[in-house]
């Protein structure tokens, strides 16, 4: 099985050469299809705090818990003037089913080409049971109203994470 992923791999390699995305960097722009027929772009969110959380796959235990946690705090994020967006490489039809099944209202972006995942440095080589494969490293990026990365959480553990991100969004 090849781990070649086209442009996303190139973007990831270029990001790795530069040390990857860091706090203070300008957040990479994106314009992606979203669940429910939405278009989701960083440009459209300009001037707002953006919580961009990257997750591996719709309707898996950890990803479901994370989505439910963020969705449950959406009013608190709104009070903090922050928009929460989930992103994975799953197709839109999967996002639509996932949102319906768990009554999620937060936007979910689909990056099937993995270009944005690569630009944010979350499309990485992973290993399970000795098998190497490419996948999403669970990561959350808090982007300030100025479009710069304010905070990055890598290799996220789901319990308590949404609350920690909310606290950081309120403090920003």
From TrEMBL:
Gene Ontology MF term list: thioredoxin peroxidase activity
Catalytic reaction list: a hydroperoxide + [thioredoxin]-dithiol = an alcohol + [thioredoxin]-disulfide + H2O
Chain ranges of the Thioredoxin domain: 21-172
Active-site residues per Swiss-Prot or TrEMBL entry: 63 (cysteine sulfenic acid (-soh) intermediate)
InterPro entries, per the entry: AhpC/TSA (IPR000866), Peroxiredoxin_AhpC-typ (IPR024706), Peroxiredoxin_BCP/PrxQ (IPR050924), Thioredoxin-like_sf (IPR036249), Thioredoxin_domain (IPR013766)
Keyword set includes Disulfide bond: yes
Enzyme kind, highest EC tier: oxidoreductase
GO cellular component, one term: cytoplasm
This enzyme's EC code(s): 1.11.1.24
The keyword Oxidoreductase is assigned to this record: yes
Organism superkingdom: Bacteria
Biological process terms in GO annotation: cell redox homeostasis; cellular response to oxidative stress
UniProt keyword list: Antioxidant, Disulfide bond, Oxidoreductase, Peroxidase, Redox-active center
Chain ranges passing through the membrane: none
The protein's assembly and partners: Monomer.
Family: Belongs to the peroxiredoxin family. BCP/PrxQ subfamily.
Function: Thiol-specific peroxidase that catalyzes the reduction of hydrogen peroxide and organic hydroperoxides to water and alcohols, respectively. Plays a role in cell protection against oxidative stress by detoxifying peroxides and as sensor of hydrogen peroxide-mediated signaling events.
Stated name of the protein: thioredoxin-dependent peroxiredoxin
Source organism of this protein record: Methylocystis rosea
